[in-house]
Design a protein that fits this description.
The protein is of the alpha/beta class and 481 residues long. The chain has helices spanning 2-12, 51-63, 81-89, 114-127, 152-168, 189-193, 221-224, 226-232, 257-261, 300-311, 371-374, 430-455, 466-480; strands spanning 19-21, 24-26, 35-39, 68-71, 93-97, 111-112, 133-140, 176-181, 208-211, 240-245, 270-275, 288-290, 296-298, 349-350, 381-390, 393-402, 407-409, 411-415, 421-425.
Length: 481
């Protein structure tokens, strides 16, 4: 009992809550908060359950100047008190995705149903008590091609219902953001869509994250594309954050963009930076190697990032001297969002069921002169196996997506009320589909990586291959058990 009480007290004796004012993050003393983060998902399963691993990894992060981690998937049915208390001890805040392995909204066949909504709510309920839970993330790169904007209203519906749940449960006003792929053809229309409308609209994101891999090797603020991205967000009404970065096409990585992010060129718009990633995987982005016990062993990137973070001392604007001036804009067209799902499935939405209110893609020419940055999107390849619920029917689909190239997904064609032809998934054998897709993806990744690196292309992180797909399937089975 004494051990339990001591642990409970340590959870309550938390870091101060970070909140949003205008386009910036602040602590209770009125000091502007800047993220110095790392992506932390060393296992496809929940990385916040092993206290010994959290102790070793978070201590090493703290020594490198890290003050925040981004975690993509957790199991809401397990206790996270130990790891969240350890994170608190080392001054580390958490950015947490609310989707789980089988609830992600997919751009090719978007759904927003009761199963997805309540799964998000379980994650919220599990983490809302922690002061160092800084924000939830409603989705990561759901729209990952220029033709994926049919998913837009589903993203906003998920934000709306997640924020409504937070409010209904009497939790503190925990922000809910979204992290986007950098797709040139739809910026800045896409980020504007996520915040447009009346200021009290719960479906607006509270902050915008960009997974940005334009700065490759020796570059500059102007050459990399960072100047253009900063200008696009200069009048944005919400905080902006680089939620993944660290191009690895040029080795060794120097992370020259970190000083730029914390310089006066960018701090007026950006609230910090998250390095991709902490643990080494086959995609070769790791700061540390992990042994079988999830104990970290620093790689060269760790020392480079450490020197960059520890040297960075961004000059913020004290809250007492800050008057927000950016305001939300009216939507270009009226929003038509999926309704809040009901437990009988009558309010669930899927492609083929309703007209969609997608944004109109806007062609944008980057001002970057870097050939590596210009080819970033074309080199992106991702693989996913997703199980989703439509009403009371579980549907499994598997897809291989390559931005700028062809997409393959087992689908049936449907027509929505707006007359647009869309793709809805058909039920397939998950084991057969996963194995086939994993093998094809592994070959595609090998070819894409070789071609990209030989030409200096900046590759976005890739998670693919049969082994990882199977790991995700096992993790999903654990979550559903």
């Amino acid at each position: 009992m004494l051990v339990f009480l001591a642990l409970a007290a340590s959870v309550l004796a938390s870091l101060p809550v970070i909140s949003i004012h205008g386009t910036k993050f602040y602590d209770p003393s009125g000091n502007q908060f800047f993220f110095k983060g790392v992506a932390y998902q060393p296992t496809p399963a929940d990385p916040l359950l092993d206290a010994a691993a959290c102790e070793s990894n978070f201590a090493l992060m703290h020594a490198a100047g890290v003050n925040s981690i981004r975690v993509y998937h957790v199991n809401p049915w397990q206790s996270h008190d130990a790891c969240m208390s350890i994170a608190d001890k080392y001054g580390i805040y958490l950015l947490l995705d609310v989707d789980t392995f089988n609830t992600t909204i997919e751009q090719k066949a978007p759904t927003w149903n009761y199963f997805q909504m309540t799964s998000y709510q379980h994650v919220v309920a599990s983490f809302a008590k922690y002061n160092n839970l800084l924000s939830f993330i409603a989705g990561n790169e759901i729209v990952n091609t220029k033709d994926g904007t049919a998913a837009n209203p589903y993203i906003r519906a998920s934000v709306r219902d997640t924020k409504a749940f937070i409010k209904s449960q009497g939790y503190r006003a925990i922000p809910v953001g979204y992290t986007a792929a950098d797709i040139a053809e739809i910026r800045p229309a896409f980020q504007d869509y996520l915040t447009c409308g009346p200021g009290d609209d719960l479906s607006q994101i509270d902050w915008f994250g960009l997974n940005e891999y334009e700065w490759c090797g020796q570059s500059t603020f102007m050459q990399s594309g960072y100047a253009a991205r900063t200008a696009e967000l200069a009048n944005y009404p919400k905080p902006a954050l680089i939620t993944e970065s660290g191009c690895n096409a040029v080795q060794p990585r120097t992370f020259g963009d970190i000083p730029a992010v914390y310089s006066s060129d960018m701090t007026g718009v950006w609230s910090g930076y998250v390095v991709y990633e902490w643990a080494q995987e086959a995609n070769d982005y790791g700061m540390v190697d992990m042994d079988s016990a999830m104990m970290p062993h620093p790689r060269p990137d760790y020392y480079v990032v450490s020197s960059r973070f520890l040297a960075a001392s961004p000059s913020g604007t004290p809250l007492a001297q800050y008057t927000p001036s950016n305001t939300v804009q009216a939507c270009a067209t009226s929003l038509s969002l999926p309704p809040t799902p009901s437990d009988d499935g009558t309010a669930d939405w899927q492609v083929g069921g309703q007209a969609l209110a997608a944004t109109t893609p806007v062609s944008t020419t980057s001002t970057s002169s870097s050939s590596a940055a210009a080819a970033t999107a074309a080199a992106r390849t991702t693989s996913s196996t997703t199980t989703r619920a439509t009403g009371t029917t579980m549907t499994t689909t598997s897809s291989t997506r390559q931005t700028g190239g062809s997409s393959s997904i087992t689908t049936a064609t449907a027509t929505n009320n707006g007359g647009a032809t869309t793709n809805a998934p058909t039920t397939t054998s998950s084991s057969a589909t996963s194995a086939t897709t994993g093998t094809a993806t592994t070959a595609a990744l090998g070819t894409a990586t070789a071609q990209a690196r030989s030409s200096g292309v900046c590759l976005r992180p890739v998670r693919g291959g049969t082994a990882l797909l199977l790991s995700y399937a096992v993790a999903a089975a654990i979550l559903l058990a």
